[in-house]
Amino acid sequence: MSTSTTTAPKPAAPEGPAQQLRTRRPVRPGAVAKNLGALLLALVFVFPVYWMFSSALKPADQMLTKDPVFVFTPTLDNFGKATGVENFWTYVTNSVLVTVGAVVLALLVALAASFAIARMRFKGRKGLVLTVMMAQMAPWEVMVIAMYMIARDGELLNSLPLLTAIYFVMILPFTIWTLRGFIAAVPVTLEEAAQIDGCTRGQAFRKVIFPLLAPGLMSTSLFGFITAWNEFAMVLILNKDKTAQTLPLWLTEFMSAFGNDWGATMAASSLFAVPVLLIFIFLQRKAVGGMTAGAVKG
Amino acid sequence: MTVHSQGAVTSAPQDAPPKSAGRPQTPAPATGASHTPPRGGRKSLPSGWLPYLLVAPAVLALATLLLYPLIKNVILSLQDINKVEFIQRKYPFAGLDNYTELLGDSAFWTVVVRSFAFTLANVALIMVLGSLIGILLNKLGTKMRLVLSMALVMAWAMPIVASVQVFRWLFDEQFGVMNWVMRTAGFSGYEQHNWMETGLSTMVIVTILVVWGSIPFVALNMYAGLTTVGAELYEAARMDGANGWQTFWKIVFPNLKPFFLITTFLEVIWVFKAFTQVYAMNKGGPDRASEILPVFAYVEGQSQAHYGLAAAISVLTIVILVIVMSFYFRLILKQEEEQ
Hints:
Protein name (chain B): Sugar ABC transporter permease
Oligomer: heterodimer
Transmembrane segments (chain B): 49-71, 116-137, 146-171, 200-220, 259-280, 307-329
Number of helices of chain A: 14
Organism (chain B): Streptomyces erythrochromogenes
Pfam family, one (chain B): BPD_transp_1
Helix content of chain A: over 70%
Main location (chain B): membrane
Radius of gyration of chain A: 26 Å
Structural class of chain A: mainly alpha
Mean pLDDT of chain A: 83
Number of helices of chain B: 17
């Protein structure tokens, strides 16, 4: 890398586009190194994601080769195999039900609690704030054995409602914490103004506050979605019955069922990752936009 | 905390919003509103019990699904539960037996040392590389910055279970890209190199996975933090003749101290609890040689059916986490005092 960075700018200078270069600042070797380094880093970070998708689209005979094949005619065979597994749609349905259920529950409960914390003063408020802060660091992965014993004694193994409830509590502290911040950022005077204009308090909330909370609701619910969608430890231990499992388990158990069919495994991984990748790119823009908007107004 | 100061200034209308807030989902809150006078309702009935009503579902949920399992965990750790007791549902009290057994077992200490080494290596790599990439992002032009940050976002967004599968494929013994890369780079012995052969090399691959997946969070936040450090500060530092390193230690680091503190702490917690990456990679193998504490607890509990012992392991893990946490809270408090 170092050799290319020192030699690269030299031929550029005496050649043709000198005019363009001279009007800007001169190209320094440091700048080239920076850009090359950045490009290399970008490749390193993207490569596993690229390799997942490209392996998923690769024909079987070009998959298991000693030297990897980079140019090929894409095929959807692997996706067919991945979705053709027994119970595939049960896994999908379970994942969607559990994730959406947990997120909706968390939003409802957190909205109420964060309003109280942000806008009201009551005894025990500080203790509650501290509890929520601590609960964000809850060692869920470590508590699986206790959860297993509780679920087993309560005849709740392989129960989707219990899984939903656990995910709900997993994402609740973060949701409360974030919404509290968003609610606190809405000036109280806005609500007052709406009431002076003839709104009831409920209307003032719905018409003035709620729209302002949209970015907060969006980013918290997407964060909750990602957490619940990805959760692995709890469902691994609590739901041994295949009809009560979610997509992360489907993915890890794919290998044992399909031997070394890496093409199908990568297709399955891609299917699992795509919703999160899409949501994440969407979230990045929305959340950042929401925060800057808040900062400008604040 | 900002809420407080804001509320203190406008104390009278402070009670106004909560009443509407109490029914964000129900469409008809009109009765509640008409009962109380619009202003100065501070001592009226609703504000007395309303906050508790609003908070109750959250508190109840946390108590039943977080606090209770935590307590149950401690109780289990004091009981002698193996396969027989588990089936008979009789849980005899064992006192501190599980703990003495663990603390006297060299296998436990091996896992503890491994967990610490794993956490230390990962967090150090994540923080150093992540910060450097954050600084690089700040120095790039708009286009290149977009390219790099999009790449970071892609890695960040990859679901852990999916990325574990991808890394297993990258490091596959027969057809993995990594063996090909090593061969192409001219190293010998990578015809069919088994990367999961030993616990240590399995941990190295898990580390690469964790660092790869965690750097984006640190780098992008570092970049966001750097943009809040005013340009005039850099300018002033340069006029005073500071070099890059001095600028970092004198300007950037003090300004971003909270960022470094919070991020390091979060990464310590996350890496220490990294169950999915380790378990999905090789189930803690080969021969239990890549187990860290959460995986150790899981394997003891589920595969070996030593439930009481597993609970004791998890209690000790939580104790370690609490020690780390209290260390962090003390740092925060100290920092607050300094300001």
